Amino acid sequence: MNKIYKNYQLLIISLLVLVSIGFGSCTMDDPLTEVTPKTLDEFKTQMTAYLAKEKMMVDTAKVGYNVNNFKSTTDSTTVKAPYLAAIVAAQAVVNDPAVTIAQIATADKSLATPGKAFWAAIWITDRRQLNDSIVAASALNAATLEGTEGGQVLSDAKVAFTTAISNATKARGTTALSALQIKLAGEALTTAKKAFVSAITPLDFNTFLAKSKSYVAEQKSKVEASVAGYNMGEYVTLTRTNYLIVVLAANDSVNKSGISHTGISKAITNMIAPKAAFVPFVADHRPLNDTIIIAETLNPTFVVGTAKGQVVTAAKTAFTNAITAAKTARENVTLTEGLTKAARFKMGQAIFTIQASIVLGDLIIDSNTLKAATPIGTAVGQVSSAANFVFNKAITDATAVRNNGASTYAQMTTAIASLKAATSTFTNSIKK
Question: What are phi and psi of 228, to 5 degrees?
Fold first, then answer.
């Protein structure tokens, strides 16, 4: 037994030697840096400095929008005391003459939960300028009434400025935003404020009339130069027509002799809604429109019924719904090129699917006719009960696919192939 133990010791020593040689060979060109363990005094010094820094942060933190300010009074009263108490308790541990490194480490860990809560309640970026802008914008918005008189603004300007203030307020209260994001939020609000101020109706009638004439003339030129169509940069025919009608009416109004302050405001107000809808396509919708035209041309030819060449109600409904969805996509001017192509693909798939459902339906009719004409038995011209059962199941499965309005083109073609194969197998099983 002693001999075995000695051999085991020799084996361990040998392994240690080999490991040391290995480390030596691996680090000839890149010597390992020896890390000297910290002493107790070093731990105490570092921990004391850290605690002093954290205590100063807690003591000086106040409610505001600067870096290291509390986000709210509630946050300051909820998290400040617990973290301060944890810091004081940790410092008491460090000050104990008999303290050990392990105790210092435990004291450090005790700061984790209250410390995390404290720092979560602190701003990480300076929001003072953004806050000042929000306060000023809110005051201006509240002081400016919605209306058509001098010193007032129209509804759309009021809504746009209110939305801009809300967006800035949301940014101000979002913890994770960087300094750049806060800066951009402030710039966006400044831009919105300038637009709002310029939208305030001048108190001087002649100035108001001149600005209104200029604005209407500008919009008239824009809409008259626009093109109705489905290409990128073109406009939906209806929205273009609607806007042109109100612009021409406004143009007549502002250039009419004796027009009043209220009359001008009414003419401008009437332009708001159609102008908002007067937006050009951001992508080419012509291929999608062409596919929709094909689908609408084919739709009346798909007759619901049980005869050959006809479709089931579910297939007809699904195809009609697909056309409606495609038309909705076609009229959406903000739809990107990728989404427009996707809508066209879906419409194309719907065409293929309903056409495949007709093929499948005709095949089901033929299969049922064949099955009905082939008796079960062992004589010539008959089939076994098993073959009849398998063929009947194939017909049932294919019928379920055809009757399901949610079946895809791939499912239809798979069902067609499966039923054709089952028909061939059934035909071959007929006793000759």
Answer: -85, 135
